[in-house]
Amino acid sequence: MNRDVTYAEPITGEPPRAPRKKGGCGCCLGGCLVTLLIVALITIGGGAAMWYGAKSFSIPDKVVVWSYQNVIRPKIIETLPSTMKPKQKQQILQAADFGLERYLSMSSEDKRALGKEFMIAIYYYSQNKMIPPEEIPHLTKFAEETQRAYQKQGK
Questions:
Q1: Could you tell me if 76 and 88 are in contact, meaning their C-beta atoms sit under 8 angstroms apart?
Q2: Which of 8, 56, 102, 107 is the most buried (most CB within 10 A)?
């Protein structure tokens, strides 16, 4: 049995040095504190941006019209029961059209108030809670005007 045995060559040169211990302030004043400061700045900046965005929230009229014509109105037509009379369907669509026209004729301040109240209503619906009427006065008025338009179309 002839085996070739090889041996590792001896290591020459200096052995690698052990990492140096950090001195002074340690981790907290070096990396961790800086990380906490960055997270705090991002949080404060994000909160300020959200507050400003909610304060000056508005949707351009072109976006509202496009959404109504391409999404909302077709969805209304799709959800109307097939057993409903064509006159009733037309009445509902005319009331929805009135709602769009009414919205477009509002001042930017009223549109902004309506948008905020709409977000409040969505929140309450998501929580399965009743919406307190005092929290949505503009939205209530808008809904009542649209309902009156619906009732007039039926006469």
A1: no
A2: 102
Residue 55's alpha-carbon distances to 40, 52, 113, 123, 144, in angstroms, are 22, 5, 10, 17, 26
Q: What letter does residue 133 receive in the DSSP assignment?
A: G
Each as own residue / partner, the long-range contacts of residues 52-55 (CB below 8 Å, 24 or more positions apart, any chain) are 54/116
DSSP secondary structure, 26-76, as one string: HHIIIIIHHHHHHHHHHHHHHHHHHHHHHHT----HHHHHHHIIIIIHHHH
- Residue 72: is it exposed, middle or buried by C-beta count within 10 angstroms (0-12/13-18/19+)? middle
Q: What is the pLDDT of residues 91-122, one digit of tens each?
A: 888 888 988 898 899 888 888 888 888 888 88
Global model pTM greater than 0.70: no
